[in-house]
Amino acid sequence: MNYRERLKGKKRIVVKIGTSSLTHKHTGELNLYKLERLVRVLADLRNQGRDIVLVSSGAIGVGRSAAGLKERPTQLPVKQACAAIGQARLMMMYQKLFSEYNQLAAQILMTKNVMLNPQDLENTYNTFNTLLDMGAIPVVNENDTVSTHEIQFGDNDTLSAVVAALIHADFLVVLTDIDGLYTDDPHANARAHLVTVVERMDSRLNAMAKESSGSGMGTGGMATKLRCAKIATVSGADMVIASGADPEIIYKILEGEECGTLFLAHKDEEFRLTDYI
Ligand code: GLU
Questions:
Q1: Could you tell which of 16, 60, 69, 153 is best to mutate to test the pocket of ligand 1, judged by most ligand atoms within 8 Å of the CB?
Q2: Per-residue pLDDT at 88
C-alpha cells in the first residue's frame, strides 16, 4: 500500500518549524525569504479549506539578536527576557505576512501547567476549535517568558505533538534542519540512508536516532523528534519529519511525494494526553 497517498486528504494539520529553519545561521536574524514562503504555503493550505496550526520557535533567537547578544543566552532570566522581546517581534512578522495573504493570525502561548489541569485543557481545546472555526491560523509557542524548568515542555517538537493530539489533528509536519530519520549518522557512515516510512515505532529506531541527531541549532534532536512521533501517532495523527530548507516541501508532502520520514498513526483508543506530558 502506498501510505503517502493518504496524506492528500489531510484536513487538520499542525506544522512545526524550528529556530534553525527560520533564522540565518551566522547572524541569528530572521530569514525573511523562508518566513514569507512558509506563510504563503500555510495561507494557501488554509484557502484550500484545511485547518492549519503553526508551532513556531524563534522567540529566544530573535530576541537575542534584537537585544544585541552575540551568543544564545544560558541564564534563565536572560532567556526569558529575550523570549519576551523576540516573541513580540516574531508575531509582528507573522501578523504582517499572514494579513498580506488575507489570513487571520492568532497567538497562543502554552505552558505545561495548563495541560496538567483538565479544566484548563478543555478551555485550551475550545479556544483552538473556536479559532479554527473562525478560519484563523493559530501561531503557537511555549510561553517561554514565564515557563521555568519544572513547568516547561522544553522543546517545540514535544509541544507540536501535544497540540496535534489536543486538537485531534490528522497530520503533523515537523520541519527541521535534516531530511528525516537516517539509519545511521549520514556524516559518518556513507551507507546510512533515509528511512522513508516507519510503520511501527520500536526500540531499533531509538538506536538510529542517537546516531543521527544532527539537528544543530534547535533544542530538539532526533531523539526528541521520536518522542514527538510517539505522541502524535498514538493520538491518531500521521507525522512527517522533513527538511525545512524550502517550506514548499509541504506541498510535495501533501501531494504524496516521498519526502522526509513518514510515521504512520496507530491510534490508541485509550490515549490520554496527560500520560505523555
Ligand atoms: N520556545 C523556544 C523559542 O521560541 C524554542 C524551543 C525549541 O527550540 O524547541 O525560542
A1: 60
A2: 97
Closest atom of ligand 1 to CA, residue 155: 9
- Asked if the structure places residue 117 within a domain, the reply is yes
Tens digits of residue pLDDT in 160-209 = 999 999 999 999 999 998 999 998 878 788 888 999 999 998 888 877 87
User: Is there a domain that residue 2 lies in?
Assistant: no
* Cα 271 from Cα 235, distance rounded (Å): 6
> pTM above the 0.90 mark?
yes
Chain segment 216-259, per-residue pLDDT in tens: 444 557 888 999 999 999 999 999 999 999 999 999 999 999 99
Asked if the structure places residue 253 within a domain, the reply is yes
Residue 35's domain comprises: 11-276
